[in-house]
């Protein structure tokens, strides 16, 4: 399925937050990781098993393939970032994180994974064009 472009709707929310960005742009936020790979992010929830705070919300980062057929090649998950009695409440709390906070968390998770940094696509293209 080819990509689609939807014009942003600035009245849908605060695009400097995770949930606001998704509402304004009609798609999840995406970042370049410190490993040179593209990532998109979404809010996920799970049961905690704790009756006092039964729902936990966390971030799920999908690392997309840079070459070959489009698709996800790996993922990273944060720990629980918020707890609530409802899925909506937990998602709302995590959704209010700023995009800067989300990017900093992605960078930390990638670094903790300890993978060898890969070249960013623009560096690879420059080398293919004649080692510019």
List the helices and strands and how they pair.
Blueprint lengths: L17 H8 L4 E3 L5 E10 L7 E10 L7 E6 L4 E3 L2 H9 L3 H15 L7 H8 L4
Antiparallel strand pairs: 1-2, 2-3, 3-4, 3-5
Instruction: Give the % helix.
Output: 25-40%
- Report the span from N to C terminus: 34 Å
Radius of gyration from the CA trace? 17 Å
Structural class: alpha+beta
What is the typical, i.e. mean, pLDDT?
Answer: 89
CA-based shape = globular
Strand fraction equals 15-25%
The sequence of SSEs as H and E is HEEEEEHHH
Number of domains: 1
**Major pleated sheet:** 5 strands, antiparallel
| Number of distinct helices | 4
Explain how this protein is built.
The protein is an alpha+beta fold. It has one domain. It is 30% helix and 24% strand. The protein has helices at residues 18-25, 87-95, 99-113, 121-128, and strands at residues 30-32, 38-47, 55-64, 72-77, 82-84. Strands 1, 2, 3, 4 and 5 form a 5-stranded antiparallel sheet that branches. The radius of gyration is 17 Å and the shape is globular. The mean pLDDT is 89.
């Amino acid at each position: 399925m080819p990509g689609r472009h939807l014009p942003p709707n600035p009245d849908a929310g605060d695009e400097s937050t995770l949930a606001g960005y998704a509402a304004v742009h009609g798609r999840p936020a995406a970042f370049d990781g410190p490993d040179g790979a593209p990532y998109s992010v979404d809010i996920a929830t799970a049961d905690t098993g704790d009756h006092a705070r039964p729902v936990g919300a966390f971030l799920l980062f999908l690392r997309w393939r840079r070459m070959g057929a489009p698709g996800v090649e790996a993922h990273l998950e944060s720990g629980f970032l918020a707890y609530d009695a409802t899925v909506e409440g937990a998602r709302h709390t995590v959704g209010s994180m700023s995009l800067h906070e989300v990017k900093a968390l992605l960078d930390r998770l990638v670094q903790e994974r300890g993978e060898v940094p890969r070249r960013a696509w623009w560096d690879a293209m420059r080398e293919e064009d004649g080692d510019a």
